[in-house]
Design a protein that fits this description.
67% helix; DNA-binding; mainly alpha; two-stranded antiparallel sheet; Arc Repressor Mutant, subunit A; homodimer
Chain lengths: 136, 136
DNA sequence: TATTGTTATACTCTATAACTATA
DNA sequence: TATAGTTATAGAGTATAACAATA
């Protein structure tokens, strides 16, 4: 018999894997990678430093330089120097990046609806609670 | 105001990103990659063909060859030829791979407990049901 | 001295196209 | 002819170590 935490872990792992497949498909169709879509989504409500981005994405800060370069080359993001600490660089969506991100989110939402659209209210509430509880 | 699907998508994206960070940290500590951990987890209850593995992991089948090679080199998985169709190869956990996977799952569960441990029982049950319902 | 972002390097993940073996 | 896995190739993600600029 499984403990409550093991059961929760198994469910979260499966959600993670299915979302990874969805993001990969959407990214492929848009000529991007899943990691790039994730970065665009993270930037939607934030203007983080490179170090903060690394922590948000769960990777080393040395990776952020190259990812930012590749997204900047496509005109989706732009570097912004922090005036209060000249060591710090922040990343921002461009207007193009923001509208492109909106299009991507619509594609992801369509795939989510197809895959999870038959969810009952309790499951949806649980998912919402999962992420909202941690913001307080 | 957000639609129900948009809200669900946002929650799933956030769960995905946080699980990605957790898996990355656990993988780093174990000298593996997040993708390798995912493959070991997928193999726990299945013995899929390479094509099925590609679909489960949301990537092209050409990637599976190299991933299987690298995990086999560490003695964690083993190829198995399907006797009914000699074109098909299936992948299996070795005994070592299974016990190693159990250790990894314990690390992931510990991180999940720390991050999501304040969830109430109803939310946990709903989340567990989230993925079980879809198997029927 | 410590921190932030960068560069150099090596390995892994990823998709596309072409290939071999089997059906 | 069609399908399963492989190989070759190129680009992207990843961590470690060393570095320049700033604090």
């Amino acid at each position: 018999m499984e403990s409550a935490v093991d059961e929760l872990t198994r469910a979260l792992m499966e959600v993670h894997r299915e979302m990874r497949a969805i993001l990969g498909t959407v990214a492929r169709g848009a000529g991007l990678t899943a990691q790039q879509i994730e970065m665009l989504c993270v930037l939607e409500n934030r203007h983080p430093s490179f170090g903060e981005l690394a922590e948000l994405l769960g990777c080393d800060k040395t990776n952020i330089t190259g990812m930012a370069d590749r997204l900047a080359r496509r005109g989706l993001v732009a570097r912004q120097h922090d005036p209060r600490d000249r060591r710090v660089t922040r990343l921002q969506l461009t207007d193009h990046g923001r509208s492109f991100g909106t299009t991507l989110k619509r594609s992801v939402a369509a795939a989510v609806a197809e895959r999870y659209g038959d969810l009952r209210a309790p499951e949806r509430a649980a998912l919402a609670a999962l992420t909202q509880a941690r913001q307080g």
